[in-house]
Design goal:
Layout (H helix, E strand, L loop, with lengths): L3 E4 L2 E3 L5 E7 L9 E6 L6 E6 L5 E3 L7 E6 L4 E6 L8 E7 L5 E2 L3 E5 L2
Parallel strand pairs: 2-11
Antiparallel strand pairs: 1-3, 3-8, 4-5, 4-9, 5-6, 7-8, 9-10, 9-11
Length: 114
């Protein structure tokens, strides 16, 4: 069974940085595209960023220039480097993989607050 496990969430002040990591239980080359989504209370889950197996990246307009997605085939991980964080970035962040109908991690909380 393919699993994704996130880590790296937490509490950070506005303007700060966090790095999220997602570890896959299989080689990520078999998963294809990977990405990060987020869901704030009362909101629908939304795309943050995706990265294809070839390295092509897509970002939500709200995070362009602040967040960077990357993947490491040797470690079977996908990471999200978040900088210049804003209170509106507060959400549960989910790792996603293009496996079958799509697989999700359990989520990690990111809170941006002073």
């Amino acid at each position: 069974q393919v699993q994704l496990v996130e880590s790296g969430g937490g509490l950070v002040q506005p303007g700060g940085s966090l790095r999220l990591s997602c570890a896959a239980s299989v080689t990520i080359f078999t998963i294809g595209s990977l990405g990060w989504y987020r869901q704030a209370p009362g909101n629908q889950r939304e795309l943050v960023a995706t990265i294809s197996s070839g390295g092509s990246k897509i970002y939500a307009d709200s995070v362009k220039g602040r967040f960077t997605i990357s993947r490491d085939g040797a470690k079977n991980t996908v990471a999200l480097q978040m900088t210049s964080l804003k209170p509106e970035d507060t959400a549960v962040y989910y790792c996603w993989g293009n496996w079958g109908a799509g697989i999700w991690g359990q989520g990690t909380q990111v809170t941006v607050s002073s």
